[in-house]
Amino acid sequence: MLNRAALLVAVALASSVSGASVAATVSGVVASAGLSPAPVPGARVILFDPGLTIFFEARTDWIGRYRLEAPPGNYIIGAVARDYRYQELGVTLLLADVQRDFALDPESEPGVWETIGDTAPEEFGGSNSGSLLADGTLLFCHNTRDPVRFDPVSRTKTFPADSFDYQGCSAITLLGTGELLIVGGQRSTDFTDATNRVKSFNTWTGLWAQQPSLNYERWYPALARLADGGLLVCGGGQSPSAQRTATCERWDPSSRLWTLTSSMSQPSEYSPMALLHTGEVLKTWFPPELYDPAVGMWRATAATVQNADRAAAFPDHCDHSLVLLRDGQAVIVGILPAAGSPAPVMAEHYDPCSGTWRLGGNSDVVRSRPEVAQLPDGRIFVAGGRIEENDLTVFRNAEGYVRLADLYDPTTGTWRPVAEMRVAREYHATTLLLPDGRVLTTAGTGTVGNPGGDMGVDAYSPPYLFRGPRPRIDALSRTNLKNGEAFTLDVSFAPAVTSVVLIGTQATTHYVDGAVPRRLALAFTQIGGRLQATVPASPLAAPEGYYLLFVMVDDVPSEGRLIRLDPAAAAPPPDQIGGALTVEAAGNGAVLDWRHGPLNPARYNLYRSIVAADLQLTPSAIGTRTPVASVDAETWKDAAEGPAPGQVFFYRVLGRNCDGSSALP
């Protein structure tokens, strides 16, 4: 169902030639540290003066060599690569060439926590929710009573008007209008009733408004954003005894009215749900099911690998959070192990093409119901949660919740412990990605469902903020964008941007995100300090709503900019890879890279031939050829020995469908 464009390039492998010489040169080798050092190809080496008025950048070649030229002066030179720790040195450049080698240690930067404010006098820890609003401030709220609005830049708080209507444990989502929609919940504090009320908080006016009600009462409802801007809301508890329902209904963004649709196979509440790139909505709790908005029907999909019946928790709150990856797969993070589970694993990956689950990597300490936020570099921040193993060396509070924090890399399945939180937080905490790339967390410091007296607002600076000067967005042509639209960015400290990323803002209640679960890479071109980027054309890839826009150099993000994405008035042309394929020599092989022309989801087939006509594929012939590789990232190393003298390798990259076939535009 994806229309994909192709790239075709011809390559004769040859060594690069350096540019014209200038007064001073620094060169060297970047290698891994240790007893058996190895070159680090593709490492980023930066040279800058202390005032950041001069900035140069180079990449190491396949044997780790680099070369930089600059006017004479005093500089700082740094080297870094993904999964290696940043290292910098002072260097003085005169007329003679200078040699500076780097031996990089594995990444060990833990990041830093800082208390940046508080929510006093409000103590959050039961029916509360939190969201990034359309202006970059955050709204924390118990139950739409006594809200607190917090500015993470100025570190100040204000107190918006009370809605004068109790509505806690709701589902929330930020609409493209800037309204925070609060859906369902409970109407008192007795934990047995429910409400069908819907209301909104307006970012721009700070006022509350009643909206058309749901058809049914729903306490702890599940919510997913659909491609047309509509909403799917399912399950939840109902009066008089909070019994769960299997019913679902849809919200029309034009009329703002709710209509019933087909029901889930079982009653449930607060199930993580997300719109997949296939067009179906994945619900993970419980059991996993898929909803097709086109026909309004549910169908079964595979059970998770662990706890296939989830008997340890169901029908209570789910034990995990849901994250959608750039390659179209989904990840659940958190596990409440079944009794007798020998080695529970904290992450499972769902492949929407096969409809199956597989185990991911595992953290040092397994927890259920952790706080989760996807970062612009593709890693997943995981904090807190209830410890689910008998490790007496780990601090936990009276109910088993911990201060631990980790970074999970879903592409490699690896976890890395990072700086612990200041206090243990249970699942009523609110954790959100901020525009500046930090992660904010507050609340959840008491016993489960009860305020703990700690009203601090803490911000975590991830390791990517300690990797030298960050790229900077100086100007943006517009912040209201449409699917398929091109826009321009002016940037500094980024002569060779590696990706432009959109990541959906978060709106969470009880560690379940009801906003736009997306991390997307945009096709772009760069000339000097100006980029032209294009928003994904498909609303399946990029549903309408609010996003954070980051410019990336490897895994180092700029500060983000809030942008609003609206649907195009007419269907734009399909996304294309464009002419962005590059090939560089790597020993006897070659490294292909098309990061400037990515697709969402990131699934590709690669073809190679010594005859150009072999790759001039037609729709009828495309299915008859076997790709040399199928990958889920915008880079691939061809380890085959290069072409014979006088020959040329031709390469072609095509989008890959779920069935493994390639697709032409």
Characterize the structure shown.
- With 665 residues, the protein is mainly β.
- The chain has no helices and 59 strands.
- The strands form 14 sheets. Strands 42, 43, 44, 45, 48, 49, 50, 51 and 52 form a nine-stranded mixed β-sheet that branches. A six-stranded antiparallel β-sheet has the order 14-13-12-11-46-47, with no helix packed on it. Strands 1, 55, 56, 58 and 59 form a five-stranded antiparallel β-sheet that branches.
- The N and C termini lie close together (11 Å).
Strand segment tally: 59
Q: Write down the CATH class of the largest domain.
A: Mainly Beta
Rg from Cα: 25 Å
Structural class: mainly beta
Approximately how much beta-strand content do the residues carry? Answer: 35-45%
What's the helix count? 0
Whole-number count of domains: 4
- Biggest beta-sheet profile: 9 strands, mixed
Output mean pLDDT: 92
- The residue fraction in helices comes out at under 10%
Task: State the separation between the terminal residues, measured CA to CA.
Answer: 11 Å
CATH architecture of the largest domain: 7 Propeller
